[in-house]
Specification:
Number of strands of chain B: 5
Protein name (chain A): Centromere protein L
Family (chain A): Belongs to the CENP-L/IML3 family.
Subcellular location (chain A): Chromosome, Centromere; Nucleus
GO cellular component, one term (chain A): chromosome, centromeric region
Helix content of chain A: 25-40%
Keywords (chain A): Centromere, Chromosome, Nucleus
Structural class of chain A: alpha+beta
Distance between the termini of chain A: 15 Å
Distance between the termini of chain B: 70 Å
Oligomer: heterodimer
Strand order of the largest sheet of chain B: 2-3
Shape of chain A: elongated
């Protein structure tokens, strides 16, 4: 990966993004996907898209029944909205949030509809060279995060695919990114209590061995600080710091249990600030480092582009 | 057939032409009939028709023998010959107007078998009668069924389309609805699809439930106006409209057969089943082609006016239609769907729409990456059958377009690094051979390094396959060069869709790199595989392409094969390899000579390096010395072993062992010739062939065995004089004679 990993800086995101929007993004576990550029996507036509998608969902849910587009849907209501302020650079298109609301079958008239599915398409700090190389018919929102029933996810995806001629593929959070998140969260302990840094490894033995490695946050921060100090003298990059931080954690584990974790695979990292899994599930509990994390994920998604 | 009819005005021109001709033939028939009428007493059939056209309203039916007799007459004609357009018109009018009540109506309808065509006016009039008079429901249904049956025989459809709204109003009739929907399906055009009609159909749907006929009509509406209605057809409902043609079908076929006309082969299945292979079990079916569906959300500025006339790609079913609608075809919502249709590819090739290609490339790249590189659900190893189909389809699309797709090239460069050389080998090699010219600065990293690794670690068959693939690649590059490169314009575009340009010298560098690379692979491959003759054959294929680059493809470049290829080919034990080597050397000579000549004529022409001429001459002298002069160990030879060493081998006259007689590839021919030449001789002395006369006979004999390469080589390099005066070939003077002979063109030694 040709990522320039600067030390993360905590941005004051609350000034840019509306708090109610931020509340929608944090504290939920998102399933990540990458998306190829959308053809003829217009931020100005979100209402039309909402009508189309709700008719599409209704038609797919009731196979063999035609549905008028724009007709009143009593089962599913779709809304598209722009999450203003999440884009970082001028090249980044604004983030788009999609919500599917539904009224439970036996709900009372006055009950508000419940959000049963939500997802968002975003591009935060996308590679400007790549973004500028696309013709203007294309909008690049490479990162797709979704939450809700699998069936609805695939319906929304298939509608987006048909409408904007794009493709969806699963985006896993690879080892490097997981390690980077572990270091990032440890670093946050200087400001907020992250309680514990928890990592789960699987080792390729028969039967498979799963190791849950929990480090006290103070100890982790101390290790991180010492890593950074020593690397500051040798003026090494941030990526190297992360590697050496992980090596420190692993050699500590080896001293105690004689198990070399580097032979296995890091599956999950979590702390009070959030959790991330290898299979592309991420949950962020604080908006503080949201932009850094999603910049990184945008980059991972762009690397998957054909 | 029926789906095509609602596309454009001219697409039924064939039908209307036909109707014109049948009409005129009817006219001549009529004249003949009139004459007959004068000669004979009046035809009872004509009288019967006259009766039906003139019968007064309210005439009683029961006990009316006249009606019965006339009806029987008409039926007789109808079931034997079919009814003329006029007769159909009269009878239909009689029945639908209910002049004699509704009881004879069904009987008349059942005998309305057209001999040629059905006049549109009659149908329109009958539909009008449908609203005016109270027909019994069963008769109404029978009438619409009849219209559906003869739909393809109606001479024109414009007036029927004009009363689309009128016909549409019948959908509210529960009994007629299934048949009206079918009729509307056949008539609908884009301008007929309106919001109020969609709503009316949806209203019917909520009243009647999920009826397939409503769904099929709505699905056609969706094709034309996806922004108005959406639906998804369950797979069990994909069979189409039921065929409502039973009462007439067999009788109609009989009539048509008797008349010797084939107007329409009955109504074809009006509903095109979208996707027959719907039974996909995979969760992420990235290798499935998306369906050919129209764009749902139109560009705001295009939504008015122009989009009315756009024709969705899905509706184009023949090349003729493609040509007619070329200017107003709407690309499908998902470009990946084009890959499945050669018509669509045809169109894609013509339009050169950058966005469209980019969309196709995104999809293709995504599918290939997911399947072969990310392997998110097992990948190609798990679904070899699907992957195979997909790649075959991609290959056939590339062959059709005669070029590759950017995304598949980019994918291949990544995939070669992880490929095991056996997974889907023919397909991957096929894709590889479609790769466009790579600039020489990148060719090593992208292509040569991964291929080199694969080549040396894989089986003989892979080696052969790879050499063949590289030969195809070279051929494509050269063909592309000869097709696109203009002499005065050195900048040539790499591929008709990209803007990357490459200069002529850049192109030459790339070709040279490729040829040298194959030379290296070939030399080492032959060593590794013990000069296997199969591998050698593929290598010689490659050099047959290389030796003709100048004359066949106009590329001013001549690259000689490395010694590692030349000598194994010459020492090969099979005569075919030696013959092909001789042919290749002959073509090299022809190319070099003509390049030399051109260099003299046009001053600025390219320069072939002295090194190339030197290599060529060295090989040439070697070949002539070995084959012709029986002197392998001449002083300047490139391959030289000390005489002592050769003497130790115990082979007598080692220097002559590779002449045309003793060469292992030809010795059997020499023996055969010897037997034929001197049948009585008991002791075989092959050297006796070397005398003047037997020698020239021997050559003739070899040439008749099909060694054309050898023939070309010898006839062009050994002058006639030498050929004839070869009596003292054994002595050392031969080589001098050869050197001074005009056959080895001295100018080549520039």
């Amino acid at each position: 990966m040709n990522i320039c990993r600067k030390a993360p800086r905590s941005q004051n995101i609350t000034e840019k993004v509306k708090p109610e929007h931020l509340a929608l993004l944090v504290k939920t576990e998102w399933q990540l996907s990458y998306v190829t550029p959308l053809y003829q996507f217009r931020h100005t036509q979100l209402k039309t898209y909402a009508r189309q998608l709700s008719a599409f969902i209704a038609a797919e849910k009731q196979q063999g029944l035609a549905v008028e587009v724009g007709g009143l849907q009593n089962t599913f209501k779709v809304s598209f909205s722009v999450l203003q302020g999440l884009a970082e650079t001028n090249d980044d298109p604004e983030t788009v949030l999609i919500q599917v609301q539904s009224k439970p079958m036996f709900a009372r008239q006055e009950d508000p509809p419940k959000t049963v599915w939500s997802g968002w398409l975003s591009c935060i700090n996308g590679n400007p060279e790549y973004l500028q190389s696309l013709p203007k018919d294309f909008t690049c929102l490479p990162l797709f995060c979704s939450k809700g029933a699998e069936g609805l996810s695939s319906l929304v995806k298939s509608w987006l695919q048909r409408t904007f001629d794009c493709c969806f593929g699963p985006l896993d959070i690879n080892q490097t990114t997981l390690q980077w998140l572990a270091a990032l969260w440890t670093n946050c302990h200087m400001e907020t209590n992250i309680q514990k840094l928890k990592m789960i490894w699987t080792l390729p033995v028969v039967p498979p061995l799963q190791v849950t490695y929990t480090v006290d946050s103070d100890d982790a921060l101390e290790l991180w600080r010492s890593t950074r100090e020593s690397s500051a003298e040798k003026s090494r990059g941030a990526e190297d710091e992360v590697t050496r931080f992980m090596q420190g954690l692993m050699s500590h584990f080896y001293r105690h249990f004689r198990v070399d974790l580097s032979a296995g695979e890091l599956n999950q990292v979590s702390s009070a600030l959030g959790s991330a899994k290898l299979n592309g599930k991420i949950k962020i509990s604080s908006s503080r480092y949201l932009i850094s994390i999603f910049s990184l994920l945008t980059e991972c998604a762009l690397l998957k582009m054909p | 057939m029926a789906t095509l009819l609602n596309l454009s005005d001219s697409d039924h021109s064939g039908l209307s032409d036909q109707s014109v001709s049948t009409r005129s033939s009817n006219r001549s028939l009529r004249i003949a009939e009139q004459e007959r009428r004068k000669n004979e007493a009046e035809d009872p059939f004509v009288l019967a028709l006259k009766y039906f056209s003139e019968v007064e309203a309210g005439t009683p039916v029961t006990g009316n023998d006249e009606l019965e007799n006339n009806l029987v007459r008409v039926e007789k004609v109808a079931f034997s010959r079919g009814l003329s357009p006029e007769a159909i018109s009269i009878m239909l009018d009689f029945a639908m107007s209910l002049r004699m009540g509704s009881s004879p109506c069904a009987r008349v309808l059942k005998c309305l078998l057209p001999a040629s065509v059905v006049p549109q006016e009659a149908v329109v009039r009958a539909i009008v009668w449908l609203t005016v008079r109270k027909l019994p429901t069963s008769t109404q249904v029978l009438f619409i069924k009849w219209v559906l049956t003869v739909f393809d025989m109606i001479d024109a459809k414009d007036k029927l389309r004009a009363i689309y709204g009128f016909i549409f109003s019948f959908v509210t009739d529960e009994n007629l609805c299934p048949f009206i929907c079918h009729l509307l399906y056949l008539l609908t055009r884009k301008e007929n699809v309106r919001v109020f009609r969609v709503r009316k159909l949806l209203e019917q749907q909520s009243k009647l439930g999920r009826q397939p006929y409503l769904l099929y009509l709505l699905s056609l509406y969706k094709v034309f106006c996806p922004e108005l209605v959406t639906l998804s057809i369950p797979s069990r409902m994909k069979s189409g409209f039921k065929n409502h043609i039973s009462p007439w079908k067999s009788a109609l076929i009989g009539v048509q057969r008797r008349n010797g006309v084939q107007v329409a082969s009955g109504i074809s299945l009006a509903f095109a089943v979208r996707d027959k292979t719907a039974s996909r079990k995979r969760k992420h079916a990235h290798l499935e082609l998306p369906p050919l569906s129209p764009v749902t959300i139109k560009e705001p500025q295009a939504a008015q006016g122009s989009s009315r006339k756009l024709v969705p790609m899905q509706q184009v079913q023949s090349f003729a239609q493609l040509l007619q609608n070329m200017h107003r075809i709407e690309l499908p919502a998902q470009m990946g769907s084009l890959l499945g249709s050669s018509l669509a590819l045809q169109y894609l090739d013509c339009v050169q729409d950058e966005s469209a290609l980019l969309r196709l490339n995104f999809w293709l790249g995504y599918a290939l990456h997911e399947e072969f590189l990310f392997c998110s659900d097992g990948g190609a190893n798990k679904n070899p059958e699907e992957a195979l189909q997909f790649l075959n389809r991609l290959l056939s699309a590339q062959h059709f377009l005669q070029e590759g797709f950017n995304s598949s090239d980019a994918f291949l460069f990544k995939f070669l690094n992880v490929w095991d050389g056996s997974l889907l080998r023919p397909q991957i090699l096929g894709l590889l051979s479609n790769i466009p010219v790579i600039p020489s600065s990148q060719i090593k990293a992208l292509l040569f390094d991964p291929l080199m690794q694969l080549f040396f670690t894989s089986s003989l068959f892979f080696k052969c396959g790879l050499i063949e693939c590289l030969n195809h690649m070279l051929l494509k590059w050269l063909t592309w060069h000869s097709a696109y490169a203009l002499e005065d314009d050195l900048d040539i575009s790499l591929n008709s869709h990209t803007s990357i340009n490459i200069t002529l010298s850049g192109f030459k560098d790339s070709v040279m790199e490729l040829v040298h690379f194959v030379g290296r692979l070939a030399s080492l491959g032959l060593q590794l595989e013990g000069c296997h003759s199969l591998l050698l054959s593929f290598i010689l294929d490659f050099y047959e392409t290389v030796c003709d680059t100048f004359l066949k493809f106009g590329l001013p470049l001549v690259v000689m094969p490395p010694p590692g290829v030349f000598y194994p080919a010459f020492f090969a034990a099979d005569p075919i390899s030696v013959d092909r080597l001789a042919f290749i050397m002959h073509r090299y000579k022809v190319n070099l000579t003509s390049a030399k000549r051109q260099e003299k004529v046009t001053e600025q022409a390219f320069h072939i390096s002295r090194q190339t001429f030197r290599e060529f001459n060295r090989y040439q002298v070697f070949l002539v010395n070995c084959l012709w002069n029986s002197n392998m160990c001449y002083p300047e030879a490139e391959v030289r072993l000390s005489d002592e060493l050769l003497a130790q081998s115990g082979v007598p006259q080692f220097s002559t062992r590779f002449d045309l007689i003793h060469h292992p590839a030809f010795v059997s021919y020499a023996l055969d010739f010897h037997h034929k030449c001197w049948p009585g001789r008991k002791d075989t002395d092959l050297n006796s062939i070397k005398q003047t006369k037997p020698w020239s006979w021997y050559l003739e004999y070899l040439f008749t065995q099909g060694f054309d390469g050898l023939k070309d080589f010898l006839q062009n390099n050994i002058s006639r004089r030498v050929m004839m005066a070869g009596d003292r070939r054994e002595d050392g003077t031969q080589s001098q004679e050869l050197e001074s002979a005009p056959q080895i063109k001295q100018p080549l030694l520039s």
